Amino acid sequence: MNANSLIHKDYTIRMEQPCDFWTVENLTRESFWNVYRPGCTEHYVLHCYRDNPDFIPELSLVMEKDGRIIGHVMYSKAKLSIEEGGSLPIWTFGPISIHPDYKRQGYGIRLLTSSMDKAKEMGIGFLCMEGNICFYRNAGFDLAYKKNIHYHSEPKDSEVPYFLAKELIPGFLKDRLNGVSCTYCPPEGYFVADENPEGFELFDAQFPKKEKLVLPGQLF
User: Fold this and answer.
1) How does pLDDT run across 137-195, given as a tens digit for each residue?
2) Which pTM was predicted?
3) Which of 35, 20, 126, 150 is nearest to 73 (CA)?
4) Are 189 and 76 in contact (CB under 8 A)?
5) How is residue 55 annotated by DSSP?
6) Residue 61 in contact with residue 73, Cβ under 8 Å?
7) b/e string for 60-88 if b means 16 or more Cβ within 10 A?
């Protein structure tokens, strides 16, 4: 077992290895299928991201239970565009996936908390991401507009309910921005399925067939 692994009596969290790639991509597909749209694209984002210079391999982590990979999270470099000019390097994470058989049992929050602890040890000080505040509030996230951070595709002063932020290193944002407004746009790698729909369709065809459904609550 790798020295960087976190061993718990019920599960293990470790770095993803090349031999895990297909298993993790299929897990991601299972986790997100029909959640935000009919089908999903998150597994393709992950697949392409491993060759992206913004990808952080040390924070591509899997959760194992009883010899089975049941969870995964990845992190990426990102940035805030400062209103007065310039930019500030920050970070984001996701997709974070838990196999449907293990959802709503606390594994997601444990995986996220462990990954953020490791991120902080690596000097990562501030996270922005899109997600459900009802879940991520449990991990210390709050609405990003409260920190004068604007989401690129929404009106300037809107209170975007799905755009969240968390300071891992106390004072990280204040020491660098001192209250100056800024704008966040997800890293370009997150839009790869929209930019290359044919590549996505070819990739997704390698996985078991699943029915795409239009369901209440989907965003797309």
Assistant:
1) 999 999 999 999 999 999 988 999 999 999 999 999 999 998 899 999 999 999 999 99
2) 0.94
3) 20
4) yes
5) B
6) yes
7) bbbbbbeeebbbbbbbbbbbbeeeeeeeb
